Amino acid sequence: MRRLIAAAVLAGLAAPAAASEMERVAPVRDALTKKECGSCHMAFQPELLPASAWKAVMADLAKHYSDDASLPADKAAAIRDYLVANSGSERWAQAGAGLPRITEAGWFQRKHRKISERAFKDPKVLTRSNCPACHVDAERGYYEDD
Amino acid sequence: MIRRTALALALAIAAGAPAFAGSPQDGVLAHYLAEARKADPAFAGFQPARGEALFRSRHTVNPDAASCTTCHTDNPAAMGRHAKTGRPIDPVAVSANPKRFTDLAEVEKRFTRDCKSIIGRDCTAAEKGDYVAFMMSK
Fold this sequence. Notes:
The structure holds 2 protein chains of 2 kinds.
Chain A: H1 2-19, H2 31-37, H3 51-58, H4 73-85, H5 106-111, H6 117-121
Chain B: H1 2-16, H2 26-39, H3 48-56, H4 68-72, E1 80-81, E2 88-89, H5 104-118, H6 125-137
Antiparallel strand pairs in B: 1-2
């Protein structure tokens, strides 16, 4: 009984941290998404973009930012469905032309406001979207190490 | 006895067959050979040297990546790195990564994207086969 209470207390302590501001996000659990999205860049967690953004990204993979990331239609649809079903809040939907970018979301910019351009351009990092260059457990959804 | 003769015969045939017979990449190579012969019935076969020339060739269509070597490095047996995202890329040489070129759909996906991205056009079946032959020789 005591152990049960202890477990409940621990779970209670862990919960608010998990809910706070994008520091712990659910990892990519879909194998196809992990494989296909993760071959050229980290497979970003679905929660990092709202559903409307994922739909825009997945609408034309032949024009994926400046690259061709084309996939057979059935695979692209399956990945889109997974991303949309697990997407983040529309609060972060981005206005403007062009594909939405995680790195341009308000929360991302606020979190990284103290990081210099030079740090992002470091040869070990290359780009803002290279999460695991600094967040070693980013692939698993941990971003608390800042 | 018959069995042993058959085995010897099979080995003899294998020895005389194209250099890569009996490898997990055979299916992919056979596909590209058939395609190359459709385009040119006199096509004589793949050459690793031509594949190497393609791998090292430099182009101007992609400002971030002039060549296959931009991401795969000059040594195809080494780990590569995506020029824009920094993502590590497993070696392309079969000796360093035996799973390479064993799944046609996977191979086609990569050639479709990367030929367009680096060279600015689709690769021919002959070029793809040469490239695979080069990576199998590495």
